[in-house]
Amino acid sequence: MALIETHDLRFVYGKGTPFEKVALDGVDISINEGEFIGVIGHTGSGKSTLVQLLNGLLRPESGSILLDGKDIWAKPKKIRNVRFEVGLVFQYPEYQLFEETVYKDIAFGPSNKGIKKKDELDQIIRTAAEFSGLKESLLEKSPFDLSGGEKRRAAIAGVIAMQPRVLILDEPTAGLDPKGRDRILDRISTYREKTGSTVLLVSHSMEDIARVADRVLVMNHGKVEMFDETKNIFKHGEHLAEIGLRVPQITQVFLELKRLGADVRTDVYTMDFAKGVALDFLRGGEKSEGGGQQ
Ligand code: ADP
Question: Ligand 1 atom closest to Cα of 41?
Answer without folding.
Answer: 3
